[in-house]
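If you are new to this repository, start here. Below is one unmodified record pulled from the training split, so you can see the exact layout before writing a loader.
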Amino acid sequence: MKKKPAVVRGCTFCGTCVFECPEDAVFMDSGGAHIDQEKCSACGICFRNCASEAISYISENTTDNSQNC
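And here is the target side for that same chain:
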């Protein structure tokens, strides 16, 4: 079962994940950061760069098209 990153808690709207994502899979709205699972390659750059530790890896089959905080 493949795991992908998802924003699951405490997004602080810093935008680092949006800026760092090489796949343009992370976007921000009034609810915080979201990860488009269709675009995400699971490279982990957003996970490693999230200062608020809001991003975790979850099983791919438990996600919808985007996850938010």
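Two things worth knowing about this chain: Residues 63-69 have pLDDT under 50 and may be disordered. The first helix runs from residue 16 to 20.
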